[in-house]
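Troubleshooting: if your tokenizer reports a length mismatch, compare against these two reference records.
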Amino acid sequence: MDGVRAVGTDGGGERSAAASGRQRRGEIGKGERLADWTDGRLGVYGIAKANLRKVFPDHPSFMLGEISLYSFLILILTGVWLTLFFEPSSIEVEYNGSYEPLNGVLMTRAYESTLEISFDVRGGLLIRQIHHWAAVVFVAGMILHMMRVFFTGAFRKPRELNWVFGWTLLFLGIITGLTGYSLPDDLLSGTGLRFAQGAVLSVPIVGTYLSFFLFGGEFPGEDFIARLYPIHILLLPGIMLGLVTAHLILVFYHKHTQYPGPGRDQKSVVGMPFMPVYMAKAGGFFFLVFGVLAFMGAIATINPVWAFGPYRPDLVTTGAQPDWYLGFSEGLIRVMPGWEINAWGHTLALGVFIPFSLFPLIMMAILVYPFIEAWITGDKREHHILDRPRNVPVRTGLGAAWLSLYGVLLIGGGNDIVATHLHLSINAITWFVRIGFFVVPVATFIITKRICLGLQRRDRAKVLHGRETGIIKRLPHGEFVEVHEGLSQEQLFTLTQHEQEQPYEIGPLVDAGGVRRRVKPSQRLRAHLARAMFGPGTRIPKPTVEEYREVTSGDHHH
């Protein structure tokens, strides 16, 4: 790829010289003169020649990141439109509008303007719902994209920084969703804000100060909408836009990862050029995502604020759940026992503070995992070929365990909805989530690891004995066997290209001179973790060349 960049830079100079010669002879058009003027000052031609022919591999899972990107762009477009009509004011007014059931009801101007967008502005409800659905799809796409990156090991060197950018985008996306969902000041969003304010108050020592700072006084305060509004439409989207740009720049700077296969190694990429093939596909996919979101916004109601009514501190709506991506934190708080510590005239609400702290801690574990794995393996090489998840059972098990934990807590966050729809006891659901919080991730890890090892055994058998054809053959001595068909060289390479290095070990504790080595606690910890992740019982040895030749030398495939 470096060679391509060098050729592109030199080519830009040749183009400028040739264009200058044609310009002196009067053979150049206005458009080309403008392009030559721009290239002479910005070097656009050299950059374009080096990057527009950059090769991108073609695999459906790589489109998950693009779904997030396009949803983000749609969020910006629809959000700009909504700012033209939404009024972020806590001033109390009496509603007299198109939605007659609320006529004469006191509400904030923010809630009234949301109703006006929904019922009086042409296309307003459609844009509102596209905006909300895009937010849901944006976070879902980011989580799926990060899980694809995690399971395939795409976070390894040199892409650790891109993992940090992606994680930050996910975290900011969740916060942005919370602030946007709270702006209409309806009964549902107000209940969610009350929930958040209670969590902030549980922080020891500074909780009260943080709450007063965020809400401008006692909840609900008169300034919180005006404070959330610039955060939602300016601060957080601005930071996210910068991170998206940096993320895409790094994707271009690094070679794109690709799944293992013939012709694919750490130095070459098999796929399609960015221009025109990949760009045409990406452009079409953008309109496909936009069309799906518009269809969802047109036929599927989301956040019907008129059905909830304006927020009142003395009311709580039934089924008060935030968007699904916040169900993780809500489930933690809902199922936590109401533990408290009273000392020296102060109360520490552990029932709220512990789950409030667990959510960022679990998210932080996801953030630092690439660096922990790099420290355990000691691998400082660049990786551009992805792992097959089955070949790294412990990592795959950890990812599956996290997803199962998310699912269990999502049930806890909607325990009242689950109870009413399935006619179950809400106490039984709460205890299921409390026990499942500890049991389900462990069970998921064990099951996933065993599945991965089983798939490795199957791959080993396929390499040595070929693919089962379902054809039964009787041998001359009366034995019945199934005919196996040998794999192609392409399939053999894909199933055996992965590395199986020995995990890190401390080595002998006593050297040749009988002197006992000093081993740091960090080295012992690293050795234990390396054995747990890559030691015996975590992988099936792949077939060697000698084993393959021995099995295939005779009529072993029948």
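Reference record two:
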Amino acid sequence: MPAKTALDADARGEAGEAVGPLVRGVGVLRRLTEAGGTLSPSALERATGLARSTVDRITATLARMGYVRLDGRDVVLTAGVMELGNAYLAALRLPALLGARADALADELDESVSLAVADLDGIRFIRQATRRRAMSVSFRIGDLLPAERTAPGPLFATEWAEGDWARWRARRAADPADAAFPAVPPRQPPADDFAFARRVERARRDGWAVDDQLIEPGLVAVSVPVREPGTGRPACVASVVSHTSRHSAAGLRTSLLPRLRTAVAAMEAELRTAPPPQPGPPPAGLAIWTAASKQELGREFVESLARGLTVLTAFGAGRPALTLTEAARATGLSRATARRALLTHEHLGLVTAHADRTFTLTPRVLDLGFPPLSRSTLARLAGPRLRALADRVHEPAALAVLTGDGTEIQYTAGAGTSRVLTVDVTVGARLPAAATSLGRVLLADADPRSREFAEVRARGYALVDEELESGPRSIAVPVRDRTGRTVAALNVATHPARRTLEDCVHTLLPELRATADEIQRDLHTASRFTRVALR
């Protein structure tokens, strides 16, 4: 069994009532996250210390929930697992309230800007506005960093009590190289722990802090706390991050700190004036779904794991804190089942119990799959869905977007078949938009006033028969983002000798629409708090 990290080992709650399958399932998700999102079952055996049969049952359950997919010999995290992190970020509200101001500051300064919250003696990112350069910052939403190697860390540590300092010293002694923080390089050489205490005192005096190449050579940052209305405690910390070829640490203080402070003042005003959130509908039918899955899959479905994870999704916008009764009502689970799940999550550090008998999610929920998926592209999300579609219909499938001038389509993902006669889909290739089914779907949405593609808009698909060249016949449907805007198109191509036009509409179109729905569901989940690149 691998040794627990200092952050994993801080077991809280009534550990004796912890649900073993839920503990093991969370462990599998954490090991997959640490590995970048993909591990073989045998590698999961080694990483978790679990028996192969247990790993197989856990991954089968997670696959049923849409949190992983079984891809050949690998277990791969999917966008569905981001529902767990989304629940925390929605309950937190800070990304929704402050994210636009962080993005605007990044545009104004042409530097990366991040928002981070405290996570025990570490800091965890909840928003990243990253500049796209050859030399750029690669931290992701959900990444955990040691407080002493960051600019936000000293600001959060100004609120630490003696118990927090004791935990920090214990972690530093047990993990001097920061092996428990895969997002940062190992510490070289060992740090002067007294230096962090001095930085905390400076942060307390100045109200801001810098990171002068503490994470790695060349990386510099300046941070200012965004304080909660009423308490004055840091709700989060905003940072401007750069590298020494653009700014020195001293240069950050003189040139960027004033503008960062102005932006933070606007963020604090946003927190003061934000109206109370309106609760959205809680998840529905989860208890019924897990029972049906158990009946269908038998012992391969670990019902206690599935039910335990669904409890995390009961939290969200307008539901930042839940009582046991509210959690049970939101999920449809019994009070006893919800209680055991919440106690297990408290034991694992995923929820905190409060004196008023409510529970809240902790930032550690982001450990469950969020970082490796937080920079997904639409092509990456769509790839497995395209392969499954191509395998079902035995025809090539493709995804495309409009080019900037709107005259061409560009293929961004594709899946072929083993046929001798087939349509070749080359990722990156461009074709005239008006002559392709993909392009007509995209053009129909790009200009809703256009009469040329009114029929395509009304039908919701485009069917093109040998217009680009003799042979290819294709049918396409739109892929829409969270706002309902068409951002890509999905098609299946065939040959007239294999399928009639009627067959394309009656057989291929339903398969296309079902696949587009799957891609849209993944896109909507992944893009709720992150940016999903379309190319």
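Descriptive notes for reference record two:
- The CA atoms of residues 224 and 260 lie 7 Å apart.
- The chain has 18 helices and 18 strands.
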